[in-house]
Amino acid sequence: MYIIDEKDKDYRFGDNGPKYLMKGPRMNFALVQFQPGQDFKAHYHNIMEENFYIIDGEIDIVVDGKVNHMTKGQFIHIEPGEVHYCINNYNAPIKIASTLAPYQKLDKVDVDDYKY
């Protein structure tokens, strides 16, 4: 058992991106934040499934070309192999809880020049 305080961790890109509270051994758990206009590069996972729960705000999560307008309280499950892209097209920050499982050290495949 262990306890981690969110304030002791940093977002990957300063004020945005994932903030991992746990990486492995069986799953990842992160908080994700984007300011208005910010996004996260399209990618997919070969093995891991990814889940997002919207804590606050609204965001567009594009999965295999379909735009999903997500708002506070909604949950989206993304299967391995599904290309996903997140963009905050709105006027307020977004905060999301994210899980990835089963844990894999390297299982993110970037998709260049993603169009949807």
TrEMBL record:
One Pfam family name is: Cupin_2
- What Gene3D superfamilies is this protein classified in? Jelly Rolls (2.60.120.10)
InterPro entries noted in UniProt: Cupin_2, Flavonoid_dioxygenase-like, RmlC-like_jellyroll, RmlC_Cupin_sf
Domain called Cupin type-2: residue spans: 31-96
Put simply, this protein is called Cupin domain protein
Q: From what organism does this protein derive?
A: Clostridium saccharobutylicum DSM 13864
